[in-house]
Specification:
The chain has 69 residues and is mainly α. The protein has 2 helices and no strands. Helix 1 crosses helix 2. The two termini are 28 Å apart.
Length: 69
Amino acid sequence: MIKFTLRIPDDVHSRLIAQAETDRRSLNSEMLYLLEVGLGAVSSETPNRPGGDSAPPAPLRGNGHSPRP
């Protein structure tokens, strides 16, 4: 299992907490569930490319080490 830090706006955090309480899940479980649902929707909507968008990927900007492109 991978652990990482995610920065999100306060209002999104509040919405996630409320939804997790409604669904009787931990915040972590709720976020994982929503990611899985979202990724499933992306996969089913773009049959031309498994698990992704049918459009070519956007070119990378910046040097890859910068927090902002």
